[in-house]
Specification:
The protein has 281 residues and is an alpha/beta fold. Helix content is 46%, strand content 14%. The protein is built from ten helices and nine strands. Strand 2, helix 2 and strand 3 form a beta-alpha-beta unit. The chain is globular and about 50 Å long. The structure holds flavin-adenine dinucleotide. The site of flavin-adenine dinucleotide has 24 residues, from strand 3, strand 4, helix 4 and helix 5.
Length: 281
């Protein structure tokens, strides 16, 4: 692990007190590995506005790792975004993951005044200048709503030019898609770090559902093997750990500037990969 690399863990805010306690226990455990930051998602359309805020402030206060809220603009007015930014700034938060976001199904039309993540990045810069390190999302396998790959790369470049400092990718299972995306972005003269988002494989049916929705392709050979294991959770996890570890090794050897783990509020699956990679504690 070099000083320039970024290794981080993502959580989602929970609905119950028990879930929240578990999240904090996992965060304390992962803090011992000295990650660059923790991030906490923002429910579709701002549906977890208060819980994301509360979780991030508690992480920042009680766990000795910088905490970064995700913030999406599709369901929030400028006034709501301005108020949240002010609250985060006052609490000493230094990093934000800026997104367009998706609306929860059935919520209808977007209510936000900002249409795309690039508009949100611009807004954050207008409101708070350089206070925040701004992360944005990247899609090595293309955002599912993008017109085409070139257009999606152009839109990513727009986010960087609007003032993003670095990016985290949607998860993927094919290292080449990451390298190709990075190469295409670099050809446009954009040099911000693009950190691969890593999804440990623990449950095949959930993963298949998630991947369909977000446009991440599970390679046929991985899918077939996972299907063949049926209900054998241990074999699914062992195979998943091996596949993801090998992909991470390839990514880091090929110059990826770190890894961002989608923990789903569990420590073990991410730590198993972390330990296999011999990332230091
Ligand atoms: P954008 O970058 O705005 O792109 C959205 C789409 O619009 C793309 O197809 C893009 O090509 C297109 N586009 C962009 N700009 C323009 C333009 N000017 N003209 C025409 N088309 C344009 N969702 C949540 O709700 N909460 C979270 O906490 C959350 N965290 C995430 C974290 C990461 C690391 C990632 C990768 C995704 C996350 N998401 C989250 C999901 C994300 O909100 C969705 O993928 C959403 O559909 C797009 O958000 P974005 O910020 O990538 O949007």
């Amino acid at each position: 692990m070099s000083a320039k690399q970024s290794f981080s863990f993502e959580f989602f805010p929970t609905k119950t007190d028990a879930g929240h306690e578990k999240l904090m226990t996992v965060a304390r455990q992962l803090a011992g590995y000295h990650p660059s930051f923790f991030s906490c998602t923002y429910g579709a359309g701002g549906s977890t506005r208060d819980r994301t805020l509360g979780t991030v402030l508690q992480l920042e206060r009680e766990v000795n790792v910088p905490a970064a809220p995700h913030l999406s603009c599709v369901g929030d007015s400028k006034a709501e975004l301005r108020a949240l930014l002010a609250e985060y700034k006052a609490a000493g938060i230094k990093r934000i993951v800026a997104l367009r976001g998706d609306l929860p199904s059935g919520m209808g039309m977007a209510v936000g005044e900002l249409r795309y993540a690039s508009d949100l990045v611009e807004f954050i810069r207008e409101e708070t200048a350089d206070h925040f390190h701004v992360e944005v999302a990247a899609y090595p396998e293309m955002h599912p709503q993008a017109r085409n790959f070139d257009h999606d790369v152009a839109n990513f470049v727009r986010k960087a030019k609007a003032g993003a400092n670095s990016a985290i990718t949607q998860y993927f299972f094919n290292a080449d898609s990451y390298f190709y995306f990075v190469e295409r972005v670099r050809q446009q003269g954009v040099e911000i770090p693009i950190v691969p988002g890593i999804m440990p494989i623990t449950n095949y049916s959930k993963l298949a559902r998630f991947s369909d929705a977000c446009g991440a392709e599970i390679p046929r050979w991985v899918r077939k093997q996972l299907e063949a294991y049926g209900d054998d959770v241990k074999s699914i996890q062992a195979f998943g750990e091996q596949v993801i570890t090998e992909m991470c090794e390839k990514l880091l050897a090929g110059g990826a500037p770190g890894l961002h783990f989608y923990t789903l509020n569990q420590a073990e699956p991410s730590l198993a990969i972390w330990n296999n990679l011999k990332l230091s504690a």
